User: Fold this.
Amino acid sequence: MVETTFGAIYHLTAMTTLGLETAEAIGGAAVWGDGGLLAEMWLERPLEHAEGLVPLIERLLASCDVQRGDLRRISVNRGPGSFTGLRIGLATAKGLCGALEVPLIGIDGPAAYRSRVVGEGRVCVVVPDRRDRYYVQRFSATRPLGPVRILTASELEQLLATVRAEEMVVGSGVPRLATVLRRAAERSGGRLRFADEAMTRPSAAAIARLGYEADARDDVYRLEPMYVEPLLARPATR
Assistant:
């Protein structure tokens, strides 16, 4: 278990939010309250969401002296990502919302990565799927430039090699694509930039924060994971 705990130094509010991150191989959870992050924890091993997520939540809440009844919102990464991980995360979130009678907020995974980048420039979020392809979504400031697409490494290289403005690449796909991205950066004439290592890892804290800040809530019974079909993997507009 990987833990980041800030203690119960912040006062709980009517918006205290539990965020669940299960879209990728390592699952995690975080609590966001008045003033910021109270605690964040991660499972020790990949793909143990089914057996480990609920016990992790209990340890997380105990670590920052938050009771289940103190929670006023549940937010969850709705994808794209691991089919099984998304299902487990959403089912857990819905179960908690039903038991606690609190709102559910679904967070788009790429938007969570984008929210961690400071500045108003262009950002490309890249997250691997399990078929040697990548979920890709590009943003101008915080505005998506299109839907999430599935691209191969070569398709992504071609896309990023021809960017016409500076663009930062973030997401858990970056380490796997280091060679491809270096080639694309060279071909782009130096327009591509890469965020630091922290931005190549998912963030349960970002999911909790975005849920805390959200103006709208989702229908507990209708919210479904975001699945992106390969049919969207067409040449992207530059």
